[in-house]
Design brief:
This protein has ten helices and 13 strands. By secondary structure, it is an alpha+beta fold. The strands form four sheets. A four-stranded antiparallel beta sheet has the order 5-6-8-7. Helix 2 packs across helix 8, helix 5 packs antiparallel against helix 6 and helix 6 runs antiparallel to helix 7. The longest helix is centred in the N-terminal third of the chain and has 28 residues. It is globular and about 90 Å long. It starts with a helix and ends with a strand. The N terminus and C terminus are likely disordered.
């Protein structure tokens, strides 16, 4: 009887009601960190692949489930009583629990019609300018995501394989920087208005409205830019402000005031800022003259530093640098974004947001189920 009571007491002590059933907090943080790192590494890897004109792939973790297993074990060791000791004084118990978790992860590969819709479909101007309402730099959004606005081209050839000659987007960059200056001063208001369903000839697309102060030199310059390069008509409204609409509708010639790049076009344009190792100079096409290497880890190669506004650069090295914020290994070299390059990290973060908006998991995606131990 004493033996039974001892075993029950030991088991009760092992399974305490305050003990967590599973390490939920640590698992959640671990999975969240792993998924975030993997997503950014995949984006960087695809950017590097595009620099080499290699095909890209997109695989996402669709869902994660875990099975928790808890085993209670115990043992009793006994000995003969000596010198008149009671039996319960020489019983030794050894009890404990073993906990383990087995994750099941479903991966989804983007392909077919989903790939065409989410990766090749141009980003709507409303989506691009809507992100500026959330605090994103309008300059970064325009340089990365807009291929053309009015008569201003944003290095359209860069949104594909590396062009043989360096494109010129100087006027487009000037416009983007001007809008950013007004945004930083709180003098530029961007509004995305839902479509009017009662309009007979409406196309069902949101409207993009810009308003800015006209009593400043910057405000006058922006109005002149819009008129000179046929971006849109500019009107004066109360409060000494200008107003214009960035049209998302095509005219009789099929032209739009603004055209967005596709997600693949955004990545292709960013891929031009990848530093190719000297050993690969004959593999990856170059459109810029050979220049002396720069010690600045945030500087893109050659003239691409100007084309992308200094907003992105990917370095390469034979070994993974300690200063890398995100790095991937490809063709026996490491390609990385330096942790000191705030603009480059923000641009990669923007690309992550755009991918999340465009590349949702759908029923047509190929799903692979892998079990981990």
């Amino acid at each position: 009887m004493k033996l039974a009571l001892c075993g029950m007491a030991c088991l009760a002590g092992c399974v305490h009601p305050a003990r967590p059933v599973s390490p939920i907090e640590s698992d959640t943080l671990a999975y969240s960190s792993a998924i975030s790192d993997a997503r950014q590494e995949q984006l960087l890897l695809n950017i590097v692949r595009l620099r080499y004109n290699d095909p890209v792939t997109f695989v996402d973790a669709e869902r994660i489930t875990t099975t928790e297993n808890t085993m209670v074990n115990g043992a009793l060791a006994s000995a003969f009583a000596l010198s008149g000791q009671d039996l319960d004084q020489v019983l030794n118990g050894n009890f404990g629990t073993n906990m383990s978790s087995q994750p099941s992860i479903a991966y989804s590969a983007l392909r077919g019609s989903d790939y065409a819709q989410q990766i090749l479909q141009p980003l709507p101007p409303a989506t691009i300018f809507l992100m500026s309402q959330s605090g994103w730099s309008v300059e970064r959004l325009m340089l990365c995501c807009v291929s053309r606005i009015g008569d201003l081209e944003n290095a359209r050839a860069a949104a594909g394989p590396t062009p043989p000659t360096m494109p010129d987007n100087a006027h487009f960059r000037e416009l983007a920087a001007l809008m950013r200056s007004l945004q930083e001063r709180g003098q530029l208001l961007v509004q995305v208005i839902d479509p009017d369903e009662t309009e007979e000839n409406g196309d069902g697309k949101p409207r993009v409205i810009l308003k800015w102060q006209r009593t400043t030199d910057l405000g006058q310059q922006l109005a002149d830019f819009f008129r000179r390069y046929w971006v849109s008509d500019v009107s004066v409204i109360s409060g000494d402000r200008y107003i214009t609409e960035i049209s998302t509708r095509g005219n009789s010639l099929g032209d739009y005031a603004a055209r967005g790049r596709s997600l693949l076009g955004v990545m292709s344009a960013l891929s031009q800022s990848v530093h190719v190792p000297d050993a690969h100079k004959d593999i990856a096409r170059a459109s810029q003259m050979a220049v002396e290497p720069s010690a600045d880890p945030c500087r893109a190669p050659g003239g691409w530093q100007d084309v992308n506004g200094g907003l992105f650069a990917v370095q390469s090295a034979e070994a993974r640098p300690e200063t890398a914020s995100i790095a991937v290994e490809y063709r026996d070299y490491w390609f990385y974004v330096d942790d000191r390059c705030h603009d480059a990290k923000e641009t990669l973060n923007l690309l992550d947001h755009l991918y999340a908006l465009q590349a949702g998991i759908s029923s047509d995606a190929t799903t692979l189920l892998l079990l981990g131990g």
